[in-house]
Amino acid sequence: MWIDDEYQQLTAFSKLALLNDIVLVPFQSTEEGMAYLAANMNTINAVLLDAMAFQKKGQEEGTESRKALYEAWEQITALGSAHQKPLPRFVLTGQLSLLRDTGFQEQYEGFFRKGSSEENQRLFGAIKQAIDDLPQAQLRHRYAPAFAACTPDVVSEKAGRMLLEVLQAIDNPQTNHQDDTKFNTLRIIIDEVFAAAIRHRLLPAQCVSRGEINQRNCSDILSGKPKKVSDTEFATPATALLPAILATAVNTCLDLTSTASHGDRVNTASALAGLRQTVRTPYLLVALTHQIMDLLVWFNTLRLDTERLARHQGAWTISAARPR
CA of 14: how far to CAs of 49, 55, 62, 132, 142, in Å? Predict the structure, then answer.
């Protein structure tokens, strides 16, 4: 994210940043920039600040101040702490008085001089290095195909936040594993995928009841199985859409986060407790996490295949009698 009251006049700088694989999201004031950052902490990896900027939206030229920089700096620190995501910050200035101000240099160590091609390259190099050193950014790069699905137009940004939470837990697995709560986080990701499938008309709207998604119905319908979706309605899919291996992974995860038996299903909460009496490792969580990442990749691949997507949209029938 970039806050600079003159960003609209600095188109060459924006283009140069893009050539260096840096996408700048610009704002004229601290007020606008911080509001965006608070809502998009999962997509912003660094912040570039002008030393003299507007505090509020709509300020007139000549009312820039260093107070805007101070406010932005403090708010970024608070947001980073709240989200457990430290954000690298960089200051870009063309103010000659600040360039000679030793107090400013000490307070904002590593600032860069505006208008210098050499400084621009030094700045871009520092930004990329700082982002590459962030643990979350490393995970996003390492598992890029799965995170490609974690956008509002595919699954959701929430799915990306949840996936990061699990990956951070298993990135450095311990022998004596005690983080089975992350199975619930995987369940949330599955819920987000099913919600996206409903939005893309790959599942009937009847899979939602009283504002909640019936995950069992979603899993079975995507697997090609007829399901009762309301007191009087049954949904019969035309074909299985979800690969069997992914369906098994989804059902295993749903079983692990279920508190009761379902027909012939084992009460896996008890089964997991039995496993933990002798096996305390993260390997089950790791395996399911990777399979749920495959689920995300599968969904994104299907969405991008517009011809196949169209064939499966609305590919079910709703009847009042149970299918034979």
Answer: 14, 22, 23, 20, 27
